[in-house]
Amino acid sequence: MLTVVIIFLFFAILLYFLLGGADFGAGIIELFTSNDNKHRTRSTMYQAIGPIWEANHMWLIIAVVIMFVGFPDIYSKMCTYLHIPLLIMLLGIIARGTAFAFRNYDAIKGERTQYLYNNIFVYSSFLTPLFLGIIAGSAISRQIDFAATDFLSAYVYSWFNWFSIAVGLFTVALCGFLAAIYLIGEADDDYDVKRFIKKAKILNGIAFFCGGLVFLAAETNNIRMAHWIFGNPVSLTAVIAASVSLVLLWITVSKGRKQIPRIFAAFQVSMILLSVGYTHYPNFVMGKNGQNFSLLTDHANANTIDDLGAALLVGSLFILPALFYLFYSFRSRRGGGHD
Predict the structure, then answer these.
(1) How far, in whole angstroms, is CA 179 from its chain's centroid?
(2) Phi, psi dihedrals of residue 86, rounded to the nearest 5°
(3) Coil, strand or helix at 33
(4) Neighbours of 338 (CB within 10 A)
(5) Residue 246 contacts residue 268 (beta carbons within 8 Å)
(6) What is the pLDDT of residue 322?
(7) Could you give the CA distance from residue 257 to residue 184 in angstroms, rounded to a whole number?
(8) TM segments (predicted)?
(9) What is the pTM of this model?
(10) H/E element holding 19?
């Protein structure tokens, strides 16, 4: 049953990045959209994520519950040594969701309040994936000092380093790229399609640049990133698959396809996560002096794992069909021409 729990954990993280990440990316795109086109971007964004934006965070909740119940030692270590970026990320999620709702349903629609809501939404859309990436980078950076005796060493330097920040910027670029590709399929006219294609190309280039920063920062912090990625056949195959899928993505975009590029974009990001995650598995958090926390050894007792695995299996029978129906119903309603 431990294997079942771990599979659910990784799929929850992956789906949160693919769906919630694209959700954040829509706000990032709006942040870097000209004032003349902001209204058009918001309109397309509401059609794409408006009805189901709250459901995206379900995957984060599932991941947190799995960690809290199934891997309490790992959960407590992350919440202790990475509590500052975790707090900022959670505040960003709350601020973003609140601003998204208020700016859309504000009864007064005042200019000053709309300006405030818009700014909170776009800047929290940038900061949230930034710190999500910082947390992920910190977990594998070996910069967390579990034996630290002062505040800065324990709670700041564990995440405030070049490698973690570079991973955060790379995460922001990937979220924006995902959103741009997804929004191509939601655009209603050629002008918006061309705009989102252009933004996708720009964000693709930024992602390449930030990826280079990750490798450069890894060398600065004595992290063997190149060995992790290219030192084993699985990670190397995943990188090759991601590269091939990127080429196919742009070929399908050039042919005017709108839905297939989404599949290639999601596959590419999945392969990037696999290339990094496979090298470290089963370690989930790696600290200084070789002190690691493993999913295979640092878990709850067998009875708890069995109950958690059973709950996840039974819950998925209800949650997944309901989620698919939610996507289907809103897409069908949009296709039928209703508001």
Answers:
(1) 11
(2) -65, -45
(3) coil
(4) 8
(5) yes
(6) 80
(7) 9
(8) 6-32, 53-75, 81-99, 120-140, 160-182, 202-218, 230-251, 263-281, 308-328
(9) 0.91
(10) none
